[in-house]
Write a structure and sequence with these properties.
Low-confidence stretches: none
Largest sheet: 3 strands, antiparallel
Shape: elongated
Number of helices: 1
Strand order of the largest sheet: 1-2-3
Number of strands: 6
Length: 74
Amino acid sequence: MISINKNGIQIKDNPRYLWNEIQLEKIISKHLVSRESKHDYKPEINYLYFFHNNEKIEIKIDDFDISNYQLAQF
């Protein structure tokens, strides 16, 4: 579970990442490539990416019931 509101971001039962401590937040996409695949299909995985106290945080967001546009509004 992820909670995003005016105070910051909280993931599961972990402490909240406060907005004033978060830097360079953005949504990024990574394409998975398998050397064993005979097809050109490269699945795209979306992540919420940011730095908190100089630590890089990546949270997979494809499994959440929210669009990238809705997430970007925060």
